[in-house]
Specification:
heterodimer, A: alpha/beta, Elongation Factor Tu (Ef-tu), domain 3, Rossmann fold, 18% helix, 32% strand, globular, B: alpha/beta, 8-stranded parallel β-sheet, 4-stranded antiparallel β-sheet, 9 helices, 18% strand
């Protein structure tokens, strides 16, 4: 009922923030903004993003709603990077911005990843565009002086270009065109087998529903802690619309204010919603 | 003129802009934006999300679908039920500095009676809004689509409370103005309209209905002209004040509804796009001269 004490509090309202940089990474677009009004955010939180101009002006009147996007980078001084993969009119318009264009921003919103217990070795797992909050968490752990492992899974080598941005990522691809040929679960098993038997781990994952469900099943079978960052369409991002609910063991829960990061043990299964 | 306080059902409101039921949750917003939100809402009165007698989980997801200039929702009135709402939410909402209007819905007459009796006399609640967009389980008719049924319900509720009764009618009726006339004759203090317009979306892959509740309610600028026509029709036929809503996203949209006779204007879907949209809309409205 009371506000989460460790949740960064976002400014009340939407603000216009100019785009500082736009860069293509394989099929992805990385856009960066400097939002001086923003508090220091936690990896796994998200912003509601729209463009100030031509939002709804093309594509037959869409997009209309802002899009919920987790940041891939944050410097603690208002600089945020957002990774976009175009899947519909909203991400298409966002990825089409130029330096100097204004974004309309609300956030940071939601519960980010919790700090993994000191006794556990964090294993970060990202699939596709889900790599974004995972890499933000990697930066957060690095800044905290923690050791961790990162496993990233992609469709193919062009998507996997994202991994070359960061050192020491274990990369797998569906087609074997780069990294190991297989799934993040295959790589996770190899990694865990290589650890000292006494080494306990915690999983932190974001990716497509099928991948998250596989991580949830694995964590459940092995008795591991796992934090899953879910993606679900949102209209508002701040608890007003009740449109983003996901089924949990305690019923339907709003992903925007009670997530988007959930403990795997809260879920019976990972719900697969579509894009807006 | 519009910056001046306005009288509504015996309440003195600071301005004409309120929220539509179910489009702003001050308690959740205070988790995102801080506790000050509760005392700094951009509305002159706050309308609660619909409260029902029993707790409701709401409809299964998916609950959202984006449309050109709007959206469709199939939320299904999730709420914690009367008892827990009074115990848990009302004390927090009573910290607001603006009047609270409680929106209630029953699936039969007795449920409406329970809600009106429980909430009508509460000092923290300034008015009740009856959501009549639901089927009467005894007759199968949507109460708000039938002038006779709606009049019967309002007459019965009128006997139970002195609290102002606002009747929120549905646009999914053949003659919403006839329903409003009937509600007025039965003792309603105000009419609010429009609720969402029923719609359907198909999953592009499976070709089956996309929304978990099968159909949904369309909102946003896509329904603005439909709202204006219904507000115009109702305002020309009733003497009680009207709360108008439907796709309002600018001061001009609000001015259009006021010029058709509305006393208050509610902002709904635009709250989703900007939590402080109502403040901008009020400021824009204040710069527009209205028909005297």
């Amino acid at each position: 009922m009371s506000p989460t004490s460790d949740r960064p509090i976002a400014p009340f309202g939407r603000r216009a923030v100019p785009v500082d940089s736009v860069r293509r990474i394989g099929p992805y677009t990385l856009i960066e903004i400097t939002d001086l009004a923003a508090p220091t955010a936690k990896a796994g939180q998200f912003h509601m993003l729209a463009t100030e101009s031509n939002w709804g002006g093309t594509s037959g009147g869409r997009p209309f709603l802002a899009r919920a996007i987790s940041f891939i980078s944050s410097n603690g001084e208002g600089r945020f990077g957002f990774l976009l993969h175009t899947v519909g009119p909203g991400t298409e318009r966002l990825a089409d911005v130029n330096v100097g264009d204004n974004l309309l921003v609300v956030g940071p919103l939601g519960n980010g990843f919790s700090d993994p217990s000191e006794q556990l070795r964090p294993i970060l797992i990202g699939g596709g565009i889900g790599a974004a909050p995972v890499l933000a968490m990697a930066d957060q752990l690095t800044a905290a002086g923690r050791d961790y492992e990162v496993i990233l899974g992609f469709r193919d080598a062009s998507h996997a270009e994202l991994a070359s941005e960061r050192p020491n990522c274990r990369v797998v691809t569906d087609d074997g065109s780069t990294g190991r040929h297989g799934t993040v679960l295959d790589e996770l098993q190899i990694l865990i087998d290589s650890l000292e038997p006494s080494q306990q781990v915690e999983l932190l994952a974001c990716g497509p529903p099928g991948m998250l469900e596989a991580v949830r099943t694995f964590a459940s079978a092995e008795g591991l802690e796992a934090q899953l960052a879910l993606e679900t369409p949102m209209a508002c991002g701040y608890g007003a619309c009740f449109g983003c609910v996901v089924p949990t063991k305690s019923g339907y829960v709003r992903a925007c204010v009670d997530g988007p990061v959930f403990m795997a043990s809260q879920l019976d299964r990972v719900f697969a919603d579509g894009p807006l | 003129m519009t910056g001046n306080p306005v009288r509504f059902c015996g309440l003195q409101l600071e301005h004409r802009i309120i929220n539509a039921s179910g489009t702003f949750d001050p308690i959740a917003a205070s988790r995102a934006f801080g506790n000050d939100v509760i005392t700094s809402l951009p509305f002159s009165a706050f309308v609660s999300k619909t409260v029902t007698v029993e707790p409701r989980q709401g409809n299964p997801p998916p609950r959202l679908w984006e449309l050109p200039s709007g959206m469709m929702n199939s939320i299904g009135l999730p709420n914690k039920g009367l008892v827990r709402w009074v115990e848990e939410d009302l004390p927090i909402l009573s910290r607001m500095k603006i009047p609270l209007i409680a929106n209630v819905m029953g699936f039969e007459r007795d449920q409406f009676s329970t809600l009106v009796e429980a909430l009508g006399g509460k000092a923290e609640i300034s008015a009740l809004e009856l959501n009549v967009s639901c089927p009467n389980v005894e007759t199968g008719t949507i109460i708000g689509s039938d002038p006779f049924e709606c009049g019967q319900l309002v007459s019965a509720m009128r006997l139970l409370t002195d609290s102002p009764l606002i009747v929120k009618i549905t646009p999914n009726a053949s003659d919403p103005a006839a329903v409003a006339i009937s509600a007025e004759a039965a003792g309603a203090d105000a009419i609010s309209l429009i609720n969402t317009v029923r719609g359907l979306a198909l999953d592009p892959v499976s070709r089956r209905p996309w929304l978990g509740g099968r159909t949904g309610g369309i909102s946003g600028p896509a329904i603005r002209a439909a709202s204006l026509a219904q507000v115009d029709a109702v305002c020309s036929q009733v003497k009680i004040p009207v709360i108008a809503m439907g796709g309002v996203s600018s001061g001009k949209d609000a001015a259009d509804l006021i010029d058709c006779g509305a006393t208050l204007v509610a902002v709904g879907t635009e709250n989703f796009r900007d939590p402080m949209a109502a403040e901008r809309i009020r400021t824009e409205l204040e710069s527009i001269s209205l028909v005297p």
